[in-house]
Design a protein that fits this description.
single chain, about 290 residues, alpha/beta, 5-stranded mixed beta sheet, 4-stranded mixed beta sheet, 12 strands, about 25% strand, globular
Length: about 290
């Protein structure tokens, strides 16, 4: 038996044995690991792409937005929010909180994952500085039941992990190729360093989430028209004015930023703040 299959069976056994553990952090990371392996196996079905796990996307205010999983392909970028819950899941795209109903009548609430992933896409678009097709996938554990889930936006899918491969293959077949292999590698190269965070940086991210109210700009709704995120609509309202404020500091390395003009892509001709340490650092803040 090949090692990948052994790993898969071992993880599924762990998932079934420890699925009722109260260690939410362990459950979350374990679910992400299972989902990551499914994404990597898609390469054997012709759905080739690069997988990144736990990417901390910088925001203009110096904080970060953590994305569980990214699958970067010629069809676009699959942005995946992994939820390793058991029980019955209830929720709609409009609701602020969703509900998980557990045995014995116990209920817990968690922030709407569609809105959560929508904010991830917003900050990812802002960081990349270019328009790109995005697919927002909310992936739950096989141990749960999606009892009453309603969505209205295109480009959003709420599924269980056992249907992830089939869902991506179906989207792959029905979507045109919009990026070359070079484009995929370029985007991957820009995002890969964002997964290498120190324990202190990760702790700061968690502390920021604890202190942040749900009304903050992080919790915004996802695009509601199609799978292509409009970069101009996704730029944070907090971007500094070029006339009233001094040059901002880079959200990645803290260096002073320089006013530049985009020469290509969807934002060609538009102004943006670029890190003074480029090309060693690719930090940017879009303007307008």
């Amino acid at each position: 038996m090949e090692k990948p299959l052994l790993d898969m069976l071992f993880d599924e056994i762990l998932d079934s044995i420890f699925g009722s553990t109260s260690d939410n952090e362990w459950l979350g990371r374990h679910g992400e690991r299972l989902t990551k392996r499914k994404l990597k196996r898609l390469n054997y079905f012709g759905c080739k792409g690069e997988v990144l796990c736990n990417a901390y996307i910088p925001k203009p205010d110096g904080t970060t937005s953590e994305i569980d999983l990214l699958f970067i392909t010629e069809k676009g970028i699959f942005v995946i929010e992994s939820k390793n819950y058991s029980g019955w899941i209830f929720g709609s795209e409009e609701q602020f909180k969703w509900t998980v109903s557990l045995p014995g009548g116990h209920k817990e609430h968690f922030y709407n994952p569609i809105k959560q992933n929508g904010s991830h896409i917003k900050w990812l678009t802002n960081y990349l500085g270019e328009s790109c097709p995005f697919f927002s996938l909310i992936v739950f554990s096989e141990r749960c039941e999606l009892k009453k889930i309603t969505t209205k936006s295109q480009g959003v899918w709420v599924i269980k992990r056992d249907s992830l491969s089939a869902t991506i293959r179906k989207l792959w077949q029905g979507s045109p190729s919009v990026m070359s292999e070079e484009d995929v590698e370029r985007v991957y190269s820009r995002l890969a360093p964002l997964t290498n965070k120190t324990k202190a940086e990760k702790a700061a991210h968690v502390e920021n989430i604890r202190n942040r109210k749900y009304s903050s700009p992080e919790f915004t709704s996802p695009p509601s028209t199609n799978t292509t995120v409009n970069t101009e609509q996704s730029v944070s309202a907090k971007c500094p004015s070029t006339e009233t404020l001094p040059p901002p500091r880079c959200p990645l390395c803290g260096s002073p930023m320089v006013l530049r003009t985009a020469k290509r892509g969807a934002r060609a001709g538009k102004k943006f703040w670029g890190c003074n340490s480029y090309p060693k650092c690719h930090g940017i803040i879009n303007i307008d």
